[in-house]
Amino acid sequence: METETFVPLKGHCTCKTITYEVLAPFLCTNCCHCTWCQRETGTAFVLNSIIETSYFRITSETKPVLIDTLSASGDGQMIARCPKCYVALYSDYGDDGTWTTYVRAGTLDDEGKKRVRPDAHIFTSTKMDWVDLTGEKERGLPIFEASYKRKEAWGKEANERFNRLKEKMEAAKEAGGASKGKEEALPPSNINRETD
Ligand SMILES: [Zn+2]
Ligand SMILES: [Zn+2]
């Protein structure tokens, strides 16, 4: 698989207290034009690059702080911010919880940024008027007024990887007992995330 020869992507916050690495190609990079992302970033859209958390690691000694933040879906999200400059580096969203990491692609270093482009534009019904997606349409990108179904928007390999992740998520849930929530069934890589 492509992930074996993959040169890791690297990123950091503004003050470089937090540095991170991504060890496999992103499953998908969403360019989200929803009003929530506009507010959270203070700009026109966010670039959320999705990766299995087991392929994401914090490489700095200092770990980010996780800030419980409202989300449009109502499920909430944890935004990981540098404890010094408070730049947001990634989020954990919704059902997948900590199994997937939504990296804010603007925090990648210059080299990384060159390697990552949107794979889909979402919530374009609220995109700012001056954002022109003509070139993106020509590039053959899927453009959605709201959200999408993974199967429709993600590539074949990304869907296969996600299905494997889903199996692990379900197995962990079963092993943890039906009464346990996702916090108690964290993937092993989550040790990278401790904030103590
Ligand atoms: Zn910082
Ligand atoms: Zn959004």
UniProtKB/TrEMBL annotation:
Keywords: Lyase, Metal-binding, Zinc. Coiled coil: none annotated. Residues 165-196 are annotated as: Disordered. GO terms for molecular function: carbon-sulfur lyase activity; metal ion binding. InterPro entries: CENP-V/GFA, Mss4-like_sf. Signal peptide: none annotated. Residues 9-132 form the CENP-V/GFA domain. SUPFAM superfamilies: Mss4-like. Gene3D superfamilies: glutathione-dependent formaldehyde- activating enzyme (gfa) (3.90.1590.10). Belongs to the Gfa family. This is CENP-V/GFA domain-containing protein.
